Amino acid sequence: MYKFTVERGGRRKTVAVIITPENKIQVKIPRSFPEGKIPHILEKKRRWIEKTFRFNREVRRPYVPKRFLEGERFLFLGSSYGLRFAAGEVSPHIDSQKNLLVYLPEERRPDRDFVQKEVSGWYREQARRVLIPRCAEYARRIRVAMPDIRIKSLTRSWGRCSAAGKISFAWNIVMAPLFIVDYIVVHELCHLQHLNHSPRFWREVAAYSPRFRECREWIRVHQGMLRF
Ligand SMILES: [Zn+2]
Hints:
The protein has helices at about 40-45, 45-60, 110-140, 180-190, 200-210, 210-220; strands at about 5-10, 15-20, 25-30, 75, 80-85, 95, 100-105, 150, 160, 165-170. By secondary structure, the chain is an alpha/beta fold.
């Protein structure tokens, strides 16, 4: 018998079982669905649940909240940089020793909020610098017009494509190696032609990102490391 939480929802027509990276089970059910049926559903999914629990415990890289202390490691395009503080009023940047330098105005002690804001600003700037040329390049190859690009904080996805053809990317995807960033770019650009996850959509993705299965698996394993 598994423990679970229930979310009874609006226009939902089917039952969905979700296992969080922390191995909590969330069950989403239609408005009139009897809760008493859930244990039986979970029992029937036992093999999948146990497999997912094991994956989360043994394979998935854990989420370690950032503390924004000197020496802490930050990922950019798959490489790791040590956070260093210096005095001054310069924008953060990476130095030749692979440090991510954050400047603190004089008299200012390195408080967490200030450092976090500087580091987030730096990531957003890098995201723009990396993503716009990658999108332009893949838009050319896929033969779609270069869309409007937004860099955002997205909690439930890494990228999003609206019906109006606007694409948003989570700023933190630039923590991942470039081949993962490229996969996310290709994925969203292919949504300009197929606004779904149909077999035709995936064939299109495969044409421009042949290792897309490996990329999806990489994201499943490492997503905890791509957050603050
Ligand atoms: Zn998608």
